[in-house]
Amino acid sequence: MSFLKMIDEDNATGKLKEVYDELLGGEGDRLANLLKSQSLNPEILKNHLKLYQSIMQEKTGLSRQEREMIAVVVSAVNKCHYCLVHHGAALQQLVDEDNKLLFKDLAKAYQKADQPEKEQQKQLAGLTLREKAILDHAKKLTVGPANILESDIEKLNEIGLKDKEIHDITQVVSYCNYENRIAQGLGVDLEERK
């Protein structure tokens, strides 16, 4: 499940039990392994969830779908299977039936660095100009944060993104990179399906 010891819900005591009880909604609920991988430090676990909720779930200039698309792209670029599966599933729940295939192609399109541009464009043909710009920026910020220039921000402004939205994009990209590093750095496995 993880390279490090993880304390599951049934064995939690003290502060960890308090945090788990706060996080779990009902009887029989289980936490994701990514959260349990942080069980050795309950305070970080609690704060991680607050960070996730504020970046990924609170109302901002970005739609929930756009945030999950960013998470899929960041996870694909980082080759983080755990987060790709989780965010891919969340994205699938947000899109209508006509777009399900398109969003399955997101990971493929952004994961392959050596993929011909024509093939990538075909996979991303259903994206809006706004979505494509957001996702291209997310990839660039993930691959080489030191390569982001003021002109990159200006290009986003030119297609209509406001500074607050660009700030939100940066927060989502940064959070997803953090999340990917936890999952990969601690060897977090996907939860067993029941």
Helix/strand layout:
Layout lengths: L13 H10 L9 H4 L5 H16 L6 H14 L3 H14 L5 H12 L5 H7 L5 H15 L6 H9 L4 H23 L9
Helix pairs in contact: 1-3, 3-10, 4-5, 4-6, 4-8, 4-10, 5-6, 6-7, 8-10
Structural notes for this entry:
The protein is mainly α and 194 residues long. It folds into two domains: 9-56, no CATH class; 61-185, AhpD-like (Up-down Bundle). Helix content is 64%, strand content 0%. The chain is built from ten helices and no strands. The protein has helices spanning 14-23, 33-36, 42-57, 64-77, 81-94, 100-111, 117-123, 129-143, 150-158, 163-185. Helix 1 packs parallel to helix 3 (42-57) and helix 4 (64-77) crosses helix 10. The protein is globular. The relative contact order is 0.15. The model has no long low-confidence stretch (mean pLDDT 90).
What attributes characterize this protein structure?
AhpD-like; 194 residues; 2 domains; 10 helices; mainly alpha
